[in-house]
Amino acid sequence: MSFSSLYVGATGVVAHNANMQVVANNLANSSTVGYKRADMQFGDLMSQQVATGGAQYDSGSHYVSQMGKGVGISEIRTIFKEGGLENTGTTTDLAIAGNGFFGIRNPGGTGATGASQYTRAGIFRFNNDAYLVNPEGFRLQGYAVDRESGQVATSPSDVQLPYEDVVIDGQTTRVVRSDPRATSSIEMVTNLDHTASDHFTSATNPFFAMLESYNGNLSNASTPFGDSLPAYSSSLDVYDSEGNRQALTVYFDPVATSSLSNAAPGYSYWEYLVALPGSADGSSAFGTSSAGLAGLGVMTFNGQGELVGHSAYSLGGINSSGAGGKSLSAWTPSSFSTDGVPQFDFTYGSNGAAVGTVESVSYDFGISSDSSSWLSGAATAAGVGVNAANLTSLSDMNRDARVSTSFDTGSVTLYQIQDGYSRGYLEYTSVDREGFLNGHFTNGQTEQLYQVSIYRFNSPWGLRRDGNTNFLATEASGAAVDGKADVGGRGTLQQNTLEQSNVEMAEEFAKMIITQRGFQANTKVMTTADSLINTVITTKR
C-alpha cells in the first residue's frame, strides 16, 4: 500500500530539509572569522525484507530481497580545512597557519586555570585588566616568560601584560615598565692615526703620561685635561643601576717610542684612559683630582697597524682622600669578565652619593684572553717605567672579527656599543611566528612576555561546537594537548592576520540546488502516494 511510499517520501523531505539548514548555516557564516563549515552525510534507514524474489547463488541459497524504508541523517561533520588569511593591521589579531587551536578560558567559569574552549578565531584585544581576551571576554592562554632569565613556563595560563599601577602627577596610571640595567660591557673599535703626535709626555712614566695631567675636579672645563686635549677621544653613554645616563669617555694618546726601552722594532704604542664625569663618581674620590677615573692601559700595534697587545689596569684601592687614583702604584692588572675581556670597577654616584653598588664593566677593543689571564709584567703600573717589556700582555690572545687598528689615516671610532639602558615604558606589542608576545619599550628594549600556546586533539572531528566559533573537548575528540607553535605538527602564528571562514559559496550554492531538487522530488513522492491512497478509497466507495 502507498502508506509506505508516503513515509519514505516524508523521510526524504525531513532529511533534505536538515541538509538545507546545514547549507543555510554555512552561507550565514560565510563572513564569520574562524568559522569551519559543516557537511551533512545521508544514510539509508532500515529495509523491509520481501518474502519472494531474489537471485540464486551457491548451493541453492538466495539473496534476500529488501525494500528500503527511507533516508536519515548519517553524520554532520565539521570540515577543518584552513580558511583564507586576511591582513587586518591590528597586532593582536592572530591566525594559526597550519594545525591547532587557540586555547581560551572563561573567567566566569568553574576552572581557575587552563583552557576551557578552543577556537580558530584569533580576534584578541587587551582589556582594562591587561588580559588578552576575545570579544566574549574569554582569556587567551599562553606560557609566561620570566623577564629576568627568559625561561618559558611549562604550563599555560592567562596571557596578561605585567602592568604596575603608579602615581604620576597625583594620578594613578597603569603602565608596563622595563627596569633599567647598569652597563656591564663596552665594545669600542677605533682606528688610531699612526702619524699622530704625542700630546702628553713623561720622562719617567711615558706609558701613563695622561694620568699625570688628569684632573677630575675641573668644574669649569669640558674635559679633565682642560684645553690640552689628547690626540683622540671617543665617548658613549652608559647607565647606572637606576637608569641614570652618564657619559663615559676613552682618551687615547700615542707614546713616543724614542723615550722607551725594549720597544719592539716597528711597533707603536698608544696609552688610553677611561673616565666618567667627576660628578658621576660615587666613591671617596668625589671632589678630588681622581674623580671619575675608571681604567687605564696601553694598546700595542705592530708595523702593519694590527692590534697585537693590550695592557689594562684598574684601581686596586683609593684612600679616604681620593688621592690614590693619581698614584700609579694603586693601579694593578685588571680582572677579566667571563668572556676574557679586561674590566674595571666603578661606583656610580650623584653629587658624591653612591648610586647602587660597585659595578664591574668590561671594555673590549677587539682582543681578549681565552684563559682570562695575563702574561708576566710589572705588578703595578708604577713598575712599568720606560721599559716596554714590563707591560702586562694577554695570555692566549683571541682576535675578534672587529678589532682596533692603527693605520696612516685619521683617527675614527668604527664601532661602539654598550649593554646598559634606562627605565622604559611599553610602546607597543608584537607576536612572532613562534607565538612570542614581545613588548617593545621606550628605552629601545624588546622583552618576551608570553608564548601563545596552541592546542591539538587526537580527533578534532569529535569536538563539539559551543557557539561564537568556540569548540569544547569531548571523549570523542580526546583531551586537549597544549604545545608551542611549529612544534609537534602545530602551525605557526601570524600577527595582524585573521583566518576567515572556510565556506566556499559556489560549492554551497551547488549543494543548495541539489538539496532543493531532492526536497521537491520527495514532496512529489508524497503527493503521488497520497493520490494512490485516494484512488483506493474512491474504488471502495
How would you summarize what this structure contains?
With 541 residues, the protein is mainly β.
Q: Main β-sheet, in a few words?
A: 11 strands, antiparallel
CATH architecture classification of the largest domain:
Sandwich
Strand content: 25-35%
Average pLDDT rating: 91
Principal-axes geometry comes out as rod-shaped
CATH topology of the largest domain: Tick-borne Encephalitis virus Glycoprotein, domain 1
Number of helices: 3
Distance between the termini: 17 Å
Q: Residue share in helices?
A: 10-25%
CATH uppermost class of the largest domain:
Mainly Beta
Number of domains: 3
Number of strands: 38
Structural class: mainly beta
> Regions with pLDDT < 50 over 5+ consecutive residues?
none
**Can you say what the CATH homologous superfamily of the largest domain is?**
Flagellar hook protein FlgE
Radius of gyration: 40 Å
Key traits:
38 strands, six-stranded antiparallel beta sheet, 34% strand, 541 residues, mainly beta, rod-shaped, eleven-stranded antiparallel beta sheet
Question: What does this protein look like?
Answer:
The chain has 541 residues and is mainly beta. It has 3 domains: 3-51 and 64-81 and 503-540, no CATH class; 85-179 and 425-499, no CATH class; 185-418, Flagellar hook protein FlgE (Tick-borne Encephalitis virus Glycoprotein, domain 1, Sandwich). The chain has 3 helices and 38 strands. The strands form 11 sheets. Strands 7, 8, 11, 12, 15, 31, 32, 33, 34, 35 and 36 form an 11-stranded antiparallel sheet that branches. The mean pLDDT is 91.
